[in-house]
Each structure stands twice: as C-alpha cells, then as structure tokens.
Amino acid sequence: MATGGRKTQLPLIHEISLQSMPSFGGAVLGASGIMGVLPAGAVLGVLHVAVGVAFNSTTNSLILGTTPGGNQILAATDLKAVARTDTAMPIAVAGPFGSDTPIYFTYTQTGPVPTAGAMAIWLDYLAGPDFAAPMTVKAPGRKTQYQATHEISVQFGFGQTAGVVGVLPAGAVLDTTHLVVSQAWNSTTNTLAIGTTPGGAQLLAATDLKTLGRTDTVAPVAAAGPFAVDTPIYATAAFTGGAPNLGVATVWLDYLPGAG
Q1: Distance between CA 166 and CA 155 in Å, rounded?
Q2: What's the predicted TM-score (pTM) here?
Q3: What domains can you pick out in the chain, each with its CATH number?
C-alpha cells in the first residue's frame, strides 16, 4: 500500500487508485486496506468507479472512507454489475485536508471467492493550490512531459483514412475520448470513428468532420477496460464525394495506466 501522501512540483491533477482483476489472474482484494494517502492541503475532485467484468461471488461490494471502515467517499457499491460512475466529491469530504490523510477501502463478499471480475477505482485530487491570495500574475504556461492521467493522441489530416492513435498498456482504464475539428473537411460527407478494433467505433461513433467543433465522449463501460493486454486504439475516416483536400482533426484519449 501507499505510504506518504504524494505532492509533486509538477502542475498535475493527481490520483490514487485501486484495482482488482480476478478474471485476468489478478489478486482479489483483501477485506480492508489503504487505497492511498492524500497529502496535507489536498482537495478532492472526482471519484471514478469502473467495473468492466462483473464479480461472481454471491455478493460483492466496496466502500471507501477517510476512516477505517468508513464510507464518507463511497457508500457500499455493487461489483456484480458492469457499470461506470463518476462522482464529484461532496463538500463535506472534499478538503482541503489539514494533514496527510489515508483513504481506506473495505471489501465484502458472501459466497465463494470470485473467479471473475475486473474493476478499477481512481480518485482525482488537487495536491494543493499554486499560491494563496492575493493572486498575482503567474509564470508562463507550463507544459510537462509527464502525465498523472495519461493520454494518447494523433492529429488527423485530410489525406489519412485509417491508423493507430496509440497503444493502451495492459491494465489501462479509459476515461474520455476527445475530438477537436480545427479545420472543416470538404468532401460531400466526412466522418471519423475511434475503436478498439480496426474500423471499429466502440469509443466514438462516426462523427461529422465538416463542421468546426469539439466532442468529449466518456468511454462506455463495455469498452473502458481494464484491458488484459496492450490494446491498440484505431481511428477510421470515411468520406463520400471527392477526396477531401482540406481538413484537420485532433484526437486524444485520457486513460489511467493502472492502479498504484
């Protein structure tokens, strides 16, 4: 389990996470433990719960809290149904925290130990504000080469019809697929789909590229993972009429690389 709360100097949204994947040979959770430790000053953001494969004991549930056995962050949640939830933390438990604060999990089951199931939980948090009031002019915009929440991305031009956006590592859990059309495409029709198979649209259904705009699509639970093996993500463009000679679109996918 994690020890001290993590607070880096990088300008990131931090996370602590928990994963159990008995379907893929992973360990089943113990009865209780520490998911991670929030550093002093942390402010909670959103709790994400993704059950990609239903657990198969008679009952399976999980709670999270700021005290051992507590449920201040997550009330008893069923792990026997494939589902995803994204919950903004209530003000009563959001912080800022006065000291390093462990987050505790409690797992309960009845019946036999599960032989199937895959789930990941991650909790976003701001490690602490950049500075206190009064607010003055900040330094220039920051761009690091490190992501707490990872991403894969590609810029798609009018001359491309298909390709790989990137490869998700084994254990990854997808968050959101983003599409920005910064230059309209000029065939009779132009669309772009994103999927986990060549030509697939599991993550983004065929979306119009002829209009400037932005689309942000939360990964459906059936395609969100956790992934058992390294998994390529495919982009497929289609058009009718003449081939386009204008058009630029940027695609990126946010993902949790794995628990811990």
Answers
A1: 12
A2: 0.57
A3: 13-126 (2.60.120), 150-256 (2.60.120)
